[in-house]
What does this fold into?
Amino acid sequence: MTLVASGPADSPAASPTAPDGKGVGPLLRAWRERRRVSQLELALRADSSARHISFVETGRARPSEEMVLRLAEHLDVPVRERNALLLAAGYAPHYPKTPLDDPALDTLRDGMERLIGGYEPYPALVVDATYTVVAANRGVAMLLQGVPESLLAPAPNAMRLTLHPEGLAPRIRNLREWRGHLLEQMERQIALHRSAALRELYEEVAAYPVPAGVDEGRPVEPVAYFALPLRIEHEGRVLSFVSSISTFNTPMDVTVAELAIETFLPADPATAKYLQSLVG
It folds into this structure.
């Protein structure tokens, strides 16, 4: 099991800066419209008035630092983007971005290691905002057997590992379904975070060719799956998993806010039995 830093402090996306030619008003209006919230509804949530919200959005009023944070909270703006709103309003960023290998995050790293280690023999990993793998347990290592070193080092990316023609893609029985699920997931993240790095990654992995022969002529076992499974070949067996993604509640640090823990639960009795036999 390995836990590594995800790179320099600004690797997932650029440090927040006030956009050229844009004050905080247009940015807040864009977030409000993205959330499909009216000025009146936002005003009621933030204990303000629709008139004041309108003045802020048009630049006729400068919101206080407290008001910017309050509006961002009620619009569910990601932590990194809240810093950008503050900068656009003329205030200092409120949320730090601590490198993952900083001693201040020792407790966090230890906790994540214990969590994914305790999940073995089932696979579990931790990724950052651009799906760089910062931690993985032995269940993940088992699935990655045979993947070329070029995809594993120096900082493996979960999307590349899964969708690259030399990665897991040729072994995924339902690749077209699983690929569509992952691309839709990335599209939602891009819409939420407006990350240029994530957009670049999406365009890269979406352009990967689908290996010839996948999903063709392969019978599907009569299992009543309760969620879309990842069906992957491993040493002559087909293992089936459903995934769950967890994030930290009310994070106060950009790095922590952008971490996600993905766990893979056996989707059928045969997969569970096989994985348990590896530790039995």
